[in-house]
Amino acid sequence: MPKIVDHDERRRQIVELVWRLIAEEGIQAVTTRRIAEVSGTSNGALRYYFPSKEAALTAAFEYVVDATNRRADRADAHRHGLGGLRTLCLEIMPLDEERRAEARLVINFWQQALNSPEKAALHAEIQQRWRAEMTARLDEAEAEGEVVAGAAGAATVDALASFLLGLQIEAVLAPGYATPERQLAQLEEFLARLRLRPSAG
Question: Residue 84 class from Cβ within 10 Å (0-12 exposed, 13-18 middle, 19+ buried)?
Answer without folding.
Answer: buried
